[in-house]
Amino acid sequence: MAEADLPTFQDLYDVGKTELLTRAQAAGFESVDLTEGSVSDRFLGAGAAIGDEVVRTLVQQKKKCFFSTATGTDLDELADDRLGISREDAAYAYGAVTVTNPGPEAVEVPAGSRFGTAVDADGHQVTFATQSGLTVAAGDSEGVGVVAEEVGTDGLVGVGTIVEVLDSDLQGLITVTNPEITVGTAPSDAVFLDFIRAAFPDVDKRAATEGGIEWGARRVAGVAYAKAIENLNEPGRVRLVVCDENGDSNGAMVQLVYTEVFIYWRALGIPLDVQGATKLTPTVAFTIAVPDTKNQPAVQAGAAAAVLRVLNLLEPEETLYRSSIVAAAKRVEHVVDVPLSSVVIDGASPPVDLEPGAGEIIRGVLTNITVTVVDA
Known about the structure:
Structural class: alpha+beta
Strand order of the largest sheet: 7-3-4-6-1-8
Helix content: 25-40%
Strand content: 15-25%
C-alpha cells in the first residue's frame, strides 16, 4: 500500500464514529452526542490518535525492509541480513578550523579545546576538539586540526558550520570557522547503496516482495484485495489472487492486473500467475448470552453485523477462525458470553474453522448468519 493510500487521522476518526453510531443504534439509543469536546468526541479522538501512531510506526517499519528506503543502521542491518556485507566501520570525522583572535593580546588555545556547530531546531549540535595546542597572536588567525567527538556521519559538516566556541574560558576571546568540509567517516547511505547496487545488480528485485506485488495489483481500478503466495514447489514463482471488495472477480479484472503487474514483475525475473478469487459464502451459527433486561433483538442484530464485518475483511485464502467470531460477538455491548462450542460454520460436526482452498475468499451474507439468544 502506498503511503498516500494510508488512513489519515480523520479517516480513523470517521471509522470510529461509524462504529459508535452502529453500536448505539443496535443497543436502542436514539442519539449520540458527538459535538466537539463531548465524551464521545474525546474517546474517538484518542482512539484515532492511537491508530494514527500505529500507522506511522508501521510505515517506518516497512521502510526498514527495502534498500530504496532504509537508512542509517537500518540499511546496515538490511545489507548484513540479505547480502552478508557490511559498511566500513564508522570513524571520527576530522578536518581543520581557523581560529581568529580579534583582541589586543595573544590567546593560548590548548589541545582538546572544543568547538561546535550551531544548535539545530532539534537541539542537536556536532562538537569537535582540537588535536594540538596553538597560540594565536593579537589580530591574527591560525589553523588547527579538529576531530569529531562522536563516531559517525553526523561529523560530516559543511564549510563554515563550525562556528561555536564551547570552552567558557575562550568565549569572547576568539572566533572560529571551518574553511573546508570535514571528512573521513564511514561511507554515507548514498555511497553505500551505490556500492551495494554495483556488487549486486539484482538487489532491487529482491525488494520485490509479496507485499510489493500486492500493492501493484491494488493499483488496478476495482481491485480491493490482492494476495500473493509463493509457490513452494517452484521457488520464485508467485500466484496472485485478486478480487473486488465483495470477493468477486472476472476475466477483465484478471487481464488488467496481468497488464499492470505481471509484465512489470516478469521484467524483474519473477514469474507470476494471476487468477480471480472464487467466493465462498458459508453459513455461520452461534449463541450469545444477553441479560433479559436488555433489548435482546437489538443486541442480536448487532452481533450478526459484527460477525459479518469479520467475514468481509478476510483476505484471499485467509482462514475463518471460530475464535474470531467469538471475539467479534463479545465486543457487542450487553453480550455476556459466546460459547466457542456454539459456533458452527457450514454445519460442520464437530465444529471446525473454515480454511479456504487455493484462490478462494470467504465473504459473508447476513441471511447466512444465525444468532441464537439465551438469557445471561
